[in-house]
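Colleagues,

Please find the record for the two-part complex below.
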Amino acid sequence: MKQSITLGKVTKFMGLGFLNTFKDLFTGKLEKEDYINFLRKSVVPLASILLFIGLWHLGAKSLYNTEAEFKIEKALKDQGPEAAEAMRACIASGDTSCQPNTLPSPSQVWTSYKSLLKDHRIIKADKLAFAEKTAALNEKRVAAGKDAITYTGRPSFVDQIFRSLRTVFAGFLLALLIAVPLGIFIGLSPTLKSSFNWFIQIFKPVSPVVWYLLVFMIVKTLLIDSNEDSSFTISFISVGLCSMWATLVNTAMGVSSVDKDYINVAKVLKLGSFQKIFKVVLPSSLPLIFTGLKITLSVAWMVLIAIELLAQSPGLGLFVWEEFQNGANDSNAKIIVAMFVIGIIGFLLDRLMLTIQNAVSFDKTDAI
Amino acid sequence: MSTIIKETGNTHNGIFPSNEVMLDLKKLKKVYPTPKGDYVVLEDLDLQIRKEEFVTIIGHSGCGKTTMLSMIAGLNAISGGHISVLGKHIKGPGPDRGVIFQAPSLMPWMTALQNVLLGVNQVFPHATKAQRNDIAKYYLQKVGLEDAFNKRASELSQGMQQRVGIARAFAIKPKVLLLDEPFGMLDSLTRGELQDILIEIWNKEKITAVMITHDVDEAIFLADRVVMMTSGPRAKIGDILDIDFERPRTRKSVLEHDDYYKYRKHLIDFLEH
């Protein structure tokens, strides 16, 4: 059979079917149905986004006013009418020193986003300049057997994103390597299942914070002699341990609930256990294993922020915490920027998993 | 050791090249324990099936036909009595007894060819890869799937999937073929097609076959003997009808045969009483 790959198929495969409506608008002949489809899939979501921004703007404005009134009243009570008047003028002038500290408006967040990008470009240029300046010196140092001098300036927002992604992927990989094989063994053997069940039930609901503390206790002692910064190790192990449960449970369930007909076929053909696992059991439980992995990745991304914050491991979590502690005028807006970035990356990770799942799994119908 | 069926002076006119017993069910019993005491599905069931014989089994739903077949396949434990193939008691399932299940039971992530090869590789481990491929392809051609070797099972229609099931069962060259209402889920047109395909391959291979069916016409068309089971609990063999049509048969010649309605009436009378 000839398989043609079209844009429509690819986007649908990746769970981005809504993009097709745009393609339809610019290509093909348009029928009435296409307009309705376009309206439903593109215009309505767009309108809901605008509505959301509008509500956010109004809400932020009212919070701003409440906070401003409160500041002026406080000045009046503590320092008298002149101070209150000065405060009112100061707030109206937009001076950063006396702005009410509350939920930032959409436009403030957008400004912060741009300033973070600008900051990133500056740091990038700075890094390049540093690398150029030290290139010759580093060559000599390496030749002499010494360590090269590395850039130790602060990371930019974009650097933080990549560090977070690195931590999440390391944690996810750890979860995969532990949970999938363990899940297969548990699923295959009722004895193992009953002996591990209490273990899973007890540890599954434990909070990320506690996992972090546990990992910290162990890793700190294990790495007692090393001078290396253990925060990355601690945070990725904690992320892995927090997030592996969904995969473990789903793998075990998938393996133990393989269609009885398939098992009967394997029995009649007298397949050996290796063949039975790799030719029958695993392929048939792949959809469930991937559902588990998808949950694992999204949980990993969700707990990452809390764990980075605790572990003081560089990344978005630490960024958010530092901005909160910083309390500068645009800190709140930066936190909201981070929130959106976290959300969008989480969404993209989910789509990534869906694409891989569709590519490897036989059952194209129940992937959502 | 194999027993020889004694000539009982029955109506059978000796169309079998051998009277050797392939499959022997002796005092077979199946009991399911329930909270209210044991439920006896089968009791004192005796049946002997000759080599190269095609036997169909007919009976009311829930009478224990499928239970009996899965016991022969070794997928269901025997509570009493024994089952032997060529005189040897069976212990669990094995590729000497091929099964065509009611649902096609193909691995949906494999292609038609891979599904057949799964069994072939297991039964002919010493053959070369090319030889095993040839065996699998030969049987897929026999069931009319020469254009679908590399199609995934999930892409095939129910009827085509069951064709792969037939190819898979014949390709492992079993001593006994067990068919559990293999066409029960198909529409009547497809069913007719598959009956023709099945009987065509069977005429060539002459593998001893035991097939469960609900369809009286199917039972007569395919079988040398139709075995009627009594309703459960404690089901046993109620009656056995010899079908003396010549082989190879065509549907037309069977329908036009004088004895056809006599056989049909016999079976329906049994089922209605």
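Chain A is about 80% helix and 0% strand.

Comments are welcome before we finalize the supplementary table.
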